[in-house]
Amino acid sequence: MIIDCHGHFTTAPPQVADYRKRQLAEFDATGRADHIAAPAVSDDEIRAAISGQQLRRMQERGVDLTIFSPKAVAMDHHRGDEATNVAWARFNNALIDRVCRLFPQQFAGACQLPQAPGVAPGARVFEELERCVNEYGFVAANVNPDPTGGRWADPPLHDRTWWYPLYEKLVELDIPAMIHVSGSCNPHFDAVATHYINGDTTAFVQFLTSDILKDFPTLKFIIPHGGGAAPFHWGRYRGLAQDLGLPPLEDKVLKNVYFDTCVYHQAGIDLLLRVVPAANVLFASETFGAVQGVDPRTGHHFDDTRRYVADSPSVGEDEKARIFADNALGVYPRLRLHPRCAQR
Fold it and tell me: Which parts of 155-248 fold into alpha helices (H)?
């Protein structure tokens, strides 16, 4: 079995993006947009958006199940206000629920949170999180460490007043968080080429240098895109932990933090699997995501990460089996209830 822990509804019908444009135009004009009516999206439109694209690609690559969430760059937390973003998150999460109901064997849901710049995650975020888990049966949440969109103006992840209530709610609901930034309003940081990797690396270092994982010993975090720069600079971070008098890097971080395989070349996957223990790696492709073309050097799509994992000499076949499925079942406890996973 192959479980892809990182999928987004990037092929949603066009009225989804149009709705956000109308929201933001109204917000920019009046300072309020939560009243803008959401568009109708039919089941047939959802089927068409999934069957000929996401599902077809999964079938071509032998992926059995994808943990599916709204389009990450379109979470758009740096725009609007909390009320506007509540309406936007509820709409997108409802679409993910409908995908999971229409294709119950192939998808499990993960939610977008209604974060907003300058607003600590509170009652509105918790309400949407509880709704998605308890009503929709979602198995995870995407947490944006920088809702300011590249300005990094909100407190870091170890701020107890700002972030700890969210961690408490995640523990209560027994779901992990995927660290995932959204769009960038900073011209220095391209959203997918730079800001995503910045967010991943920044979160890793904040986990390393803080007490988050000590204070929440059962909470699991997934850092996507191969962990950003962390695996490539593993020695730097091991040395930093040593210089700061912290426990060894592996003891400090790897009981709670996991990396996915959204790394789009063989050498990158080989490095990831040599550096990070196989027990801390989850298969993922982010299809369709940041890179959608065919690599002229291989003749295969850049994001066909299954090939890289399967062909890697860095780990054995038993470890590959854990990466492809078993690790995900440990990190996402609610995924064990999914009909595709119940017999494993």
Answer: 160-173, 196-208, 212-215, 234-243
